[in-house]
Specification:
Blueprint lengths: L8 H10 L7 H19 L7 E5 L13 E6 L7 H4 L2 E4 L13 E7 L9 E2 L6 E2 L1 H12 E12 L40 E9 L1 H5 L5 H14 L5 E8 L5
Parallel strand pairs: 1-2, 1-4, 2-3, 4-7
Antiparallel strand pairs: 5-6, 7-9, 8-9
Length: 248
């Protein structure tokens, strides 16, 4: 019997890249149909081994974009009573503080409609200084991911109205915000960021595309077209990063 390939969450992130050739030209549109066929064939022939995923700001329904078997969700509100119903680990914690997990614990982390709620600047605990919660959160994401682990985020972004219409949106993301967290010496080093991410994909996207990164390219392209033509444009920017860590 033929061996069945196995993928962990980091390899699934690589598979998701196949599905993110967002049609900047007719050539890319045609090519996306072919990559979609390749993707579906690969997923149908794959048995996924157990890996760990964490969904930030999950509410009572944590998302599992890479279809891992061991799913964790964390939220400020207490949804632990829903854990058995949704079949996952639901943890109550302040997401602006260090989370109760060991370093390198997760293969992948997601943040859907969450980053825009994280303040960029806040008063320090003693009231005589300031803190940078967004920088601290990105440090925590990097700490929790294994080397080559995947971070995927979907955020309403400037200049779309969805970036501003919710009064609890305090962190407006732009097309270039991600650049502050990439590479060996990102600009945010001067603000206290200690991590290192490598860009896999960054771009404007229909909101639901980031929920299902393993979905076929054709379906994603159709959804993007629908938003661009019928729904006032694509409102969200998707980030897909990989954590870079030095062995040892």
């Amino acid at each position: 019997m033929r061996d069945v390939p196995q993928l962990d969450a980091r390899q699934k992130c690589d598979v998701a890249v196949i599905t993110t050739n967002f049609y900047s030209s007719l050539h890319n549109k045609l090519r996306s149909k072919r990559t979609g066929r390749i993707h579906r064939k690969l997923v149908r022939s794959t048995i996924f081994i157990m890996t760990r995923h964490l969904d930030l700001g999950c509410g009572d329904n944590p998302r599992n974009p890479f279809l891992t078997n061991d799913l964790y969700g964390v939220d400020l509100a207490d949804f632990s009573g829903c854990a058995e119903r949704v079949g996952t680990h639901l943890i109550t914690a302040d997401l602006l503080e260090p989370l109760p997990f060991d370093a390198d614990f997760f293969d992948s982390i997601s943040a859907y409609d969450f980053l825009e709620h994280v303040p960029r600047v806040a008063p320090g605990s003693k009231g005589d200084s300031t803190e940078l919660p967004f920088i601290n959160l990105m440090n925590e994401v990097w700490r929790l991911l294994r080397h080559d682990g995947c971070f995927i985020a979907s955020t309403p972004a400037f200049p779309h109205r969805k970036a501003f219409q919710d009064p609890t949106h305090v962190n407006i993301i732009t097309r270039d915000t991600h650049k502050y967290f990439l590479g060996d010496e990102p600009y945010s080093r001067r603000y206290g960021f200690v991590g290192n991410f490598r860009e896999v994909y960054v771009g404007w996207d229909a909101e639901k595309n980031a929920w299902q990164p393993l979905q076929s390219s054709f379906r994603k392209a159709f959804r993007n077209f629908e938003h661009a033509v019928l729904k006032g444009g694509r409102s969200h920017i998707t980030w897909m990063f990989k954590a870079v860590k030095t062995p040892g």
